[in-house]
Specification:
Elements (H helix, E strand, L loop, with lengths): L8 E6 L1 H5 L3 H11 L2 E8 L3 H8 L5 H15 L9 H16 L4 E7 L3 H9 L12 H5 L4 H6 L8 E3 L3 H11 L13 H5 L9
Bound molecules: adenosine-5'-diphosphate (ADP) and magnesium ion (MG).
Adenosine-5'-diphosphate binds next to helix 4, helix 5 and helix 8.
Protein backbone atom coordinates (compact mmCIF):
# COMPACT_ATOMS: atom_id res chain seq x y z
CA UNK A 1 0.00 0.00 0.00
CA UNK A 2 1.25 3.48 -0.80
CA UNK A 3 2.08 5.71 2.14
CA UNK A 4 -0.20 8.69 2.78
CA UNK A 5 1.40 11.86 1.31
CA UNK A 6 1.61 13.38 4.81
CA UNK A 7 4.19 10.68 5.63
CA UNK A 8 6.75 11.91 3.07
CA UNK A 9 10.16 12.40 4.67
CA UNK A 10 13.20 14.42 3.68
CA UNK A 11 16.77 14.61 4.93
CA UNK A 12 18.15 17.99 5.98
CA UNK A 13 21.58 18.81 7.37
CA UNK A 14 22.68 22.15 8.77
CA UNK A 15 26.24 22.42 7.47
CA UNK A 16 29.15 23.59 9.66
CA UNK A 17 28.77 27.23 8.52
CA UNK A 18 25.09 27.23 9.56
CA UNK A 19 26.08 26.13 13.05
CA UNK A 20 29.01 28.60 13.22
CA UNK A 21 26.75 31.44 12.11
CA UNK A 22 24.30 30.72 14.94
CA UNK A 23 21.46 29.95 12.56
CA UNK A 24 20.30 26.59 13.91
CA UNK A 25 17.16 27.98 15.57
CA UNK A 26 16.32 30.22 12.61
CA UNK A 27 16.64 27.40 10.09
CA UNK A 28 14.67 24.89 12.16
CA UNK A 29 11.92 27.43 12.81
CA UNK A 30 11.33 27.82 9.06
CA UNK A 31 10.55 24.13 8.70
CA UNK A 32 8.46 24.10 11.88
CA UNK A 33 6.34 27.07 10.95
CA UNK A 34 5.39 25.68 7.54
CA UNK A 35 3.87 22.68 9.35
CA UNK A 36 6.53 20.00 8.92
CA UNK A 37 7.29 17.58 11.75
CA UNK A 38 10.80 16.95 13.05
CA UNK A 39 11.11 13.16 13.40
CA UNK A 40 14.86 12.69 13.88
CA UNK A 41 17.82 14.87 14.79
CA UNK A 42 21.47 14.43 15.81
CA UNK A 43 24.61 16.53 15.84
CA UNK A 44 27.68 14.76 14.48
CA UNK A 45 31.14 15.29 13.07
CA UNK A 46 31.38 13.31 9.83
CA UNK A 47 34.45 11.93 8.06
CA UNK A 48 35.37 12.36 4.39
CA UNK A 49 34.17 8.87 3.57
CA UNK A 50 30.65 9.74 4.79
CA UNK A 51 30.67 12.96 2.75
CA UNK A 52 31.61 11.11 -0.45
CA UNK A 53 29.00 8.40 0.20
CA UNK A 54 26.35 11.03 0.83
CA UNK A 55 26.98 13.01 -2.35
CA UNK A 56 27.43 10.00 -4.64
CA UNK A 57 24.30 8.10 -3.54
CA UNK A 58 22.76 9.39 -6.75
CA UNK A 59 24.91 8.09 -9.63
CA UNK A 60 23.84 11.12 -11.69
CA UNK A 61 24.90 13.70 -9.05
CA UNK A 62 28.38 14.21 -10.53
CA UNK A 63 27.05 14.99 -14.00
CA UNK A 64 24.06 17.10 -12.86
CA UNK A 65 26.09 19.20 -10.41
CA UNK A 66 28.81 19.83 -13.00
CA UNK A 67 26.22 20.87 -15.57
CA UNK A 68 24.43 23.09 -13.04
CA UNK A 69 27.70 24.84 -12.22
CA UNK A 70 28.48 25.44 -15.92
CA UNK A 71 24.95 26.79 -16.45
CA UNK A 72 25.42 29.09 -13.43
CA UNK A 73 28.50 30.64 -15.00
CA UNK A 74 26.96 30.92 -18.49
CA UNK A 75 23.76 32.55 -17.20
CA UNK A 76 25.90 35.40 -15.82
CA UNK A 77 27.87 35.74 -19.07
CA UNK A 78 30.95 34.21 -17.40
CA UNK A 79 33.24 31.46 -18.68
CA UNK A 80 33.13 28.26 -16.57
CA UNK A 81 36.53 27.30 -15.07
CA UNK A 82 36.41 23.91 -16.88
CA UNK A 83 34.39 22.54 -19.79
CA UNK A 84 33.91 18.99 -18.50
CA UNK A 85 31.09 18.67 -15.90
CA UNK A 86 32.74 15.60 -14.30
CA UNK A 87 36.08 17.38 -13.92
CA UNK A 88 34.25 20.24 -12.20
CA UNK A 89 32.48 17.86 -9.83
CA UNK A 90 35.70 16.07 -8.94
CA UNK A 91 36.98 19.39 -7.55
CA UNK A 92 33.62 20.22 -5.93
CA UNK A 93 33.62 16.86 -4.12
CA UNK A 94 37.12 17.33 -2.71
CA UNK A 95 36.16 20.79 -1.47
CA UNK A 96 32.91 19.46 -0.03
CA UNK A 97 34.88 16.94 2.03
CA UNK A 98 36.84 19.76 3.67
CA UNK A 99 33.71 21.88 4.17
CA UNK A 100 31.48 19.19 5.63
CA UNK A 101 34.15 17.79 8.00
CA UNK A 102 35.25 21.23 9.26
CA UNK A 103 32.84 21.23 12.21
CA UNK A 104 29.66 19.65 13.52
CA UNK A 105 26.71 19.00 11.24
CA UNK A 106 23.10 18.85 12.46
CA UNK A 107 21.38 15.96 10.67
CA UNK A 108 17.57 15.89 10.65
CA UNK A 109 14.59 14.14 9.14
CA UNK A 110 11.47 16.26 8.49
CA UNK A 111 8.09 14.74 7.69
CA UNK A 112 4.92 16.06 6.10
CA UNK A 113 3.03 16.53 2.83
CA UNK A 114 5.46 17.26 -0.02
CA UNK A 115 8.27 17.43 2.54
CA UNK A 116 10.99 17.13 -0.12
CA UNK A 117 9.70 19.88 -2.40
CA UNK A 118 8.58 22.20 0.41
CA UNK A 119 11.98 22.00 2.11
CA UNK A 120 13.85 22.63 -1.16
CA UNK A 121 11.65 25.67 -1.74
CA UNK A 122 12.38 27.03 1.75
CA UNK A 123 16.11 26.28 1.39
CA UNK A 124 16.44 27.96 -2.04
CA UNK A 125 18.80 27.39 -4.96
CA UNK A 126 22.35 26.12 -4.49
CA UNK A 127 24.20 29.37 -5.23
CA UNK A 128 23.34 32.01 -2.60
CA UNK A 129 23.98 34.88 -5.04
CA UNK A 130 20.87 33.87 -6.97
CA UNK A 131 18.85 31.97 -4.34
CA UNK A 132 15.40 33.52 -3.98
CA UNK A 133 14.86 36.27 -1.45
CA UNK A 134 12.89 34.75 1.43
CA UNK A 135 14.68 31.41 1.18
CA UNK A 136 17.22 30.34 3.81
CA UNK A 137 20.13 30.56 1.38
CA UNK A 138 18.77 33.82 -0.07
CA UNK A 139 18.27 35.50 3.30
CA UNK A 140 21.25 34.46 5.38
CA UNK A 141 24.33 34.10 3.18
CA UNK A 142 26.05 35.92 0.31
CA UNK A 143 28.39 33.42 -1.35
CA UNK A 144 28.79 32.66 -5.09
CA UNK A 145 30.48 30.13 -7.40
CA UNK A 146 32.79 32.91 -8.60
CA UNK A 147 34.04 33.50 -5.06
CA UNK A 148 34.20 29.86 -3.96
CA UNK A 149 35.87 28.65 -7.17
CA UNK A 150 38.44 31.48 -7.10
CA UNK A 151 39.30 30.53 -3.53
CA UNK A 152 39.24 26.77 -4.20
CA UNK A 153 36.53 25.96 -1.68
CA UNK A 154 32.90 24.85 -1.49
CA UNK A 155 30.18 27.38 -1.90
CA UNK A 156 28.92 27.99 1.67
CA UNK A 157 25.16 27.73 1.66
CA UNK A 158 24.29 26.72 5.24
CA UNK A 159 22.11 23.70 4.62
CA UNK A 160 21.69 20.49 2.65
CA UNK A 161 18.27 19.18 1.65
CA UNK A 162 17.36 16.09 -0.38
CA UNK A 163 16.63 16.84 -4.04
CA UNK A 164 14.00 14.14 -4.65
CA UNK A 165 11.94 11.55 -2.78
CA UNK A 166 14.27 8.77 -3.98
CA UNK A 167 17.34 10.73 -2.86
CA UNK A 168 15.69 11.41 0.50
CA UNK A 169 15.12 7.70 1.15
CA UNK A 170 18.75 6.86 0.42
CA UNK A 171 20.07 9.75 2.48
CA UNK A 172 17.87 8.98 5.50
CA UNK A 173 19.12 5.39 5.35
CA UNK A 174 22.72 6.53 5.22
CA UNK A 175 22.49 8.97 8.13
CA UNK A 176 19.97 7.35 10.50
CA UNK A 177 19.12 3.95 11.91
CA UNK A 178 15.42 3.06 11.71
CA UNK A 179 15.06 3.28 15.51
CA UNK A 180 16.39 6.86 15.53
CA UNK A 181 13.35 8.04 13.57
CA UNK A 182 10.44 8.75 15.92
CA UNK A 183 6.87 7.95 14.97
CA UNK A 184 4.57 10.38 16.81
CA UNK A 185 1.61 12.66 16.28
CA UNK A 186 1.66 16.44 16.22
CA UNK A 187 -1.53 18.11 17.40
CA UNK A 188 -1.25 20.57 14.48
CA UNK A 189 -1.59 17.70 12.01
CA UNK A 190 -5.37 17.71 12.61
CA UNK A 191 -5.76 21.21 11.17
CA UNK A 192 -3.25 20.52 8.41
CA UNK A 193 -4.62 17.21 7.16
CA UNK A 194 -7.92 16.07 8.72
CA UNK A 195 -10.94 16.03 6.42
CA UNK A 196 -13.39 17.09 9.13
CA UNK A 197 -12.71 19.96 11.48
CA UNK A 198 -15.45 18.95 13.92
CA UNK A 199 -14.85 19.78 17.55
CA UNK A 200 -13.18 23.16 17.16
CA UNK A 201 -16.25 25.21 18.13
CA UNK A 202 -17.50 24.56 21.64
P1 LIG B 1 22.28 21.31 -3.49
O1 LIG B 1 22.98 21.35 -2.14
O2 LIG B 1 21.53 22.59 -3.74
O3 LIG B 1 21.46 20.08 -3.72
P2 LIG B 1 24.31 20.15 -5.27
O4 LIG B 1 23.81 18.81 -4.85
O5 LIG B 1 24.41 20.45 -6.72
O6 LIG B 1 23.45 21.34 -4.59
O7 LIG B 1 25.76 20.38 -4.65
C1 LIG B 1 26.07 19.98 -3.35
C2 LIG B 1 26.86 21.06 -2.63
O8 LIG B 1 28.12 21.20 -3.28
C3 LIG B 1 26.24 22.44 -2.68
O9 LIG B 1 25.25 22.66 -1.71
C4 LIG B 1 27.44 23.32 -2.46
O10 LIG B 1 27.82 23.40 -1.09
C5 LIG B 1 28.53 22.56 -3.23
N1 LIG B 1 28.68 23.04 -4.62
C6 LIG B 1 27.90 22.72 -5.67
N2 LIG B 1 28.33 23.31 -6.80
C7 LIG B 1 29.42 24.04 -6.45
C8 LIG B 1 30.34 24.89 -7.16
N3 LIG B 1 30.21 25.10 -8.46
N4 LIG B 1 31.34 25.47 -6.50
C9 LIG B 1 31.48 25.27 -5.18
N5 LIG B 1 30.67 24.47 -4.44
C10 LIG B 1 29.65 23.87 -5.06
MG1 LIG C 1 22.04 18.09 -4.00
Amino acid sequence: MNKHPKKEQTFVAIKPDGIERGLVGEIISRFERVGLKLVAMKMIVVDEHQVEKHYTLDPEWRRITGEKTIAGYLSKGLKPPLEDPLAITAIILENLKKYMTSGPVLAMVWEGAHAVAIVRKLVGGTEPLVSDVGSIRGDFVLDSYTMSDADGRSVRNLVHASGSVAEAEKEINLWFKAEEIINYRLVAEEILYDVNLDGILE
